[in-house]
């Protein structure tokens, strides 16, 4: 990544020459790839009409005048002050791809997240829009203006018919369309063109339009008091016409979505648009339908769209033909012309942060966009991120509580099962404890459905030799291989390296190598053995890798065909199935001790969210949480549905260590195939950062370099540097400074992650 990042913030001045300082039309351009910086070019006479910020241009760069493509970010008449600029070669787009507001937003992202502006712009504009996917150049025909009354012309019958057909069309037609309509060959059309009676022009046309099936519309629900209070707060903000961020802390099933939809109705009634961001995994047909049953012009931007479909939606949104945009992270860039409201549901979800450059968090981008467009931003969650909670408690956000479920449904009864207690408790060798097994029987007898969460894929989670202690690991990643029984392989979950599942120790050759730990595949086998006549389905990335399989599985569960749904965190989020009367969490503390300061928060979120999947119908619901640490505060708070208790436990720890939300953080990850060289460069970077901080931000704490929690990945050794500061801007400035003029060794790469979520 960062050989490219090495001269990240250098600005390479374009070879200027001297000239008298006349006023000239100048375009500022950032490059999609290549050197960082803003380059100024002269706009030649021929391009004066076409140039506009937000369009792409072709320009000469460097000594060899290499041809590059960039984005025009500004056009101005300027004194160029004693230098002659090179002229632009071409303007590539017929329309701007980005509005001035979105250009400013992309610039802010590049400055805040320390990445190249051009790279951000490329992330903002979908690939299909850039490549004009789903469109083609076509020759469009229309009747020439000099043609008067057609019947007065002396034309053969065929040609007269063709000309009449074309005159009767509301819009220009291609030759093929005209031939079809007039039921003729292209011969009479060509004849008319030769005579100058038909004129032609070249234009981009779309190959298709998306017709979505009409959905029967549904009325608004009658809100309960909590919902009404929440809606009132939203409406007040909407009507004030200013920016405000409202954090809705509403327990699972409190009816937040209904509140969102009624607030959106108000915004739509003004002719404005709303963007609703949800985690990708929640973009199920169920969610889509919910919005489409309520609103007429909904665009759902999910990851299975083709480039041309996405480009089509983008164009519809930009033209103002869409009222409600529902999508994952990148939908925050939807080019709505008159945005009135942004809603970010499940705001605590880590998937709102992009894992590659630009490493933006959609919540922060949404906040920035809402501030500049002076519109409300609504954040919703049953388990808000501590960042948002903290801002609400400081009065930066307005907090709205929805502490009860709709229709007076009680929150489910949650109990822990202490897995430390004597081994009998577990039954013979399984992952399902006696209590959980009994509860499963009761639930099935009552014709209820069951969800079991185990956040580990595969069959056995590690393979170890009892003789020499060797754990079978990935040679590229320094991580234990997971046994997958289906293909009898041992697989690396990071790089897909695989070997046949061994019977003997690959290290010492001893026979009787042992397989330990339970993944979802083993759990599935256990469930099938215990309940051979009950339909059960496993949902994880291994079983759900075909497009549509996720939806199909959920349909089967909704219809009652499947009784037991088991899987990874995929099943923990957002599902609303009234007949689920039991949730079992197989191993609630797997993530509790990961070397990540958010480990407790993640565990609390996961357990609370999965518990929220039950008790949504008349039959009520129960949750059993198996744990080795029943007294841990994160587990205890989840068991009691007590977010505030969790926050009050966790926040002082964060404060004490200077972690977010009390300080800002920047993480640098350095990787390379040679351990010493990589460590050496990491040390160099850390020293540079410390020096930069000494002048810019004396209170910043720089730690490291240290081997990352995953010390080797895909053949690369990994080190990281972690810096925390009360003055985030200063820290980011220091981090920006270290890359100036820095030489990175050939095969070492490094990245800067601002506000990191991934600490491994
Ligand atoms: P949340 O998003 O807070 O988890 P949802 O908005 O999904 O909750 O609502 C949970 C269920 O309650 C949904 O099936 C929804 O249709 C229903 N619901 C929401 N509000 C009401 C209401 N006022 N009256 C009746 N049912 C409601
Ligand atoms: Zn690997």
What's the layout of helices and strands?
Elements: E1 23-31, E2 38-42, E3 56-61, E4 66-79, E5 90-91, H1 100-112, H2 117-124, H3 127-130, E6 135-143, H4 157-168, H5 175-182, H6 187-194, E7 198-206, H7 225-240, E8 245-250, H8 256-269, E9 273-277, H9 285-292, E10 298-301, H10 307-318, E11 324-327, E12 339-345, H11 362-372, E13 377-381, H12 386-393, E14 398-402, E15 413-418, H13 434-445, E16 449-453, E17 462-464, E18 482-484, E19 489-491, E20 498-500, E21 514-516, H14 520-530, E22 536-539, H15 549-558, E23 564-567, E24 580-585, H16 599-611, E25 622-627, H17 633-639, H18 643-657, E26 664-672, H19 675-696, E27 701-713, E28 716-725, H20 728-738, E29 749-754
Parallel strand pairs: 8-13, 8-14, 9-11, 9-12, 10-11, 12-13, 15-25, 16-23, 16-24, 22-23, 24-25
Antiparallel strand pairs: 1-2, 1-4, 3-4, 3-5, 6-7, 17-21, 18-19, 19-20, 26-28, 26-29, 27-28
Helix pairs in contact: 1-2, 1-11, 4-5, 4-6, 7-8, 16-17, 17-18, 19-20
Bound molecules: adenosine-5'-diphosphate and zinc ion.
Zinc ion binds next to loops.
């Amino acid at each position: 990544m960062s050989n490219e990042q090495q001269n990240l913030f250098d600005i390479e001045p374009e070879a200027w020459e001297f000239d008298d300082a006349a006023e000239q039309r100048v375009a500022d351009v950032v490059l999609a790839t290549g050197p960082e910086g803003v380059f100024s070019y002269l706009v030649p006479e021929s391009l004066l009409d076409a140039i506009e910020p937000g369009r792409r241009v072709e320009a000469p760069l460097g000594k060899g005048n290499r041809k590059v493509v960039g984005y025009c970010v500004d056009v101005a008449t300027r004194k160029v002050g004693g230098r002659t600029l090179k002229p632009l070669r071409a303007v590539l787009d017929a329309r701007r791809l980005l509005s001035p507001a979105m250009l400013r937003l992309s610039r802010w992202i590049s400055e805040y997240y320390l990445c190249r502006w051009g790279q951000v712009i490329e992330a903002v504009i979908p690939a299909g829009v850039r490549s004009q996917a789903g469109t083609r150049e076509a020759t469009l025909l229309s009747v020439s203006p000099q043609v008067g009354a057609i019947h007065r012309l002396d034309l053969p019958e065929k040609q007269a018919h063709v000309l009449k057909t074309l005159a009767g069309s509301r819009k220009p037609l291609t030759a093929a369309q005209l031939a079809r309509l007039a039921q003729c060959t292209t011969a009479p059309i060509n004849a008319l063109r030769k005579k100058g009676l038909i004129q032609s022009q070249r234009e981009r046309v779309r190959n298709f339009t998306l017709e979505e099936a009409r959905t029967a519309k549904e009325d608004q629900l009658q809100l309960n008091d909590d919902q009404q209070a929440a809606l009132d707060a939203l409406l007040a903000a909407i009507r004030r016409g200013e920016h405000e961020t409202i954090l809705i802390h509403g327990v699972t099933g409190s009816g937040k979505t209904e509140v969102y939809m009624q607030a959106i109705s108000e915004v739509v009634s003004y002719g404005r648009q709303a963007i609703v961001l949800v985690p990708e995994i929640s973009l199920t047909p169920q969610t889509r339908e919910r919005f489409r049953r309520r609103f007429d012009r909904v665009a759902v931007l999910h990851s299975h769209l083709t480039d041309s479909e996405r480009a089509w939606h983008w164009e519809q949104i930009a033209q103002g033909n869409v009222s409600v945009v529902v999508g994952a992270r990148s939908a925050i860039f939807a080019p709505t012309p008159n945005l009135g409201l942004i809603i970010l549901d499940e705001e605590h979800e880590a998937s709102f942060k992009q894992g590659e450059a630009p490493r933006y968090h959609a919540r922060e981008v949404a906040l920035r966009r809402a501030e500049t467009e002076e519109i409300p931003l609504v954040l919703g969650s049953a388990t808000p991120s501590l960042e948002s909670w903290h801002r609400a408690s400081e009065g930066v956000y307005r907090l709205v509580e929805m502490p009860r479920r709709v229709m007076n449904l009680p929150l489910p009864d949650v109990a822990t099962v202490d897995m430390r207690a004597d081994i009998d408790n577990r039954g013979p060798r399984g992952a399902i404890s006696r209590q959980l097994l009994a509860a499963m029987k009761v639930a099935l007898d009552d014709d209820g459905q069951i969800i079991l969460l185990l956040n580990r894929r595969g069959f056995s989670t590690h393979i170890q030799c009892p003789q020499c202690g060797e754990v079978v690991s990935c040679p590229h990643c320094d991580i234990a291989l997971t046994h997958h029984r289906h293909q009898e392989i041992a697989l690396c979950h990071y790089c897909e390296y695989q070997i046949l599942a061994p019977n003997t120790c690959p290290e010492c050759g001893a026979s009787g190598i042992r397989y330990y730990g339970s993944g979802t595949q083993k759990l599935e086998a256990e469930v099938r053995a215990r309940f051979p006549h009950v339909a059960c389905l496993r949902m994880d990335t291994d079983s759900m890798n075909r497009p549509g399989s996720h939806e199909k599985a959920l349909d089967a569960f909704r219809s009652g065909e499947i009784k037991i749904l088991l899987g990874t965190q995929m099943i923990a989020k957002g599902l609303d199935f009234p007949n689920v009367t039991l949730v079992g969490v197989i191993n609630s503390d797997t993530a509790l001790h990961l070397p990540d300061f958010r480990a407790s928060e993640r565990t609390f979120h996961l357990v609370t969210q999965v518990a929220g999947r039950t008790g949504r119908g008349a039959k009520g619901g129960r949750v059993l949480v198996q744990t080795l640490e029943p007294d841990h505060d994160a587990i205890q708070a989840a068991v009691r549905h007590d977010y505030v208790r969790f926050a009050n436990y966790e926040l002082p720890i964060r404060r004490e260590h200077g972690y977010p939300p009390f300080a800002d953080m920047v993480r640098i990850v350095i990787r390379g195939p040679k351990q010493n060289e990589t460590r050496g460069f990491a040390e160099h970077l850390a020293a540079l950062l410390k020096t930069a901080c000494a002048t810019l931000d004396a209170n910043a704490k720089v730690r490291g370099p240290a081997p990352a929690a995953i010390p080797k990945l895909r053949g690369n050794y990994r080190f990281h540097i972690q810096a925390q500061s009360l003055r985030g801007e200063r820290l980011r400035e220091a981090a920006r400074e270290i890359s100036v003029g820095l030489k990175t060794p050939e095969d070492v790469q490094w990245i800067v992650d601002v506000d990191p979520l991934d600490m491994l």
